[in-house]
Amino acid sequence: MKLKSLFNAVISKGIAQDPRGKARVEQELKRLKKDYAELSSSEQKEFDPERLTNPYSDTRILHGSGEEEIRSILVGIDIDVGEVLLAHTLRGQNKKIDLILAHHPEGRALAALHQVMYMQADIACLRGVPVTVADKLLQERIDEVERRLLPVNHTKTADAARLLDIPLMCCHTPADNHVSSFLQRLFEKKGPETVKEIMNIIKEIPEYR
Known about the structure:
Elements: H1 3-16, H2 22-37, H3 41-46, E1 60-63, E2 73-76, H4 81-92, E3 99-102, H5 107-111, H6 113-116, H7 119-126, H8 131-149, H9 156-163, E4 168-170, H10 173-190, H11 195-202
Parallel strand pairs: 2-3, 3-4
Antiparallel strand pairs: 1-4
């Protein structure tokens, strides 16, 4: 599978499992395309066109043309320069690694992490929280995250991958959507009423145990 095909599949699967529902996500993309069309030419040059088809700013191809053939992947929750160097070393030992895949965002995906947090307000509303309350609570946290990330050297891991020419990608919210969907279905089936019952259900899952 080519890197771009893998990336597109990740986005498609993430939308399919989005807690807001596929229709709501597509509505948001449609609105964004309308807003983009109304921007001036200079403003459009500053706009990230990836946002028009990808609703998850924390999920990106950070290095790679998209045409790379992907058969073997080094996967990690947190990928930093050390893991990029590890991949480079393993490649030097004739171990095939076509892609480094991070869960937590790096590069421009990390810089834009706060943008995807607005979906949490939508999810809270679906669970019965008034929109004004959800927006106020989330905005405080979003502002905090944005300020915390401003001075961070976002590009160091992506730069290391680029210098060593190892394709790098991160997949954050689409993966979280699958976890959320899985747990939601599980809890609806089991019907826990207490925190203890929830913990007992979770402990039946090897990854959580």
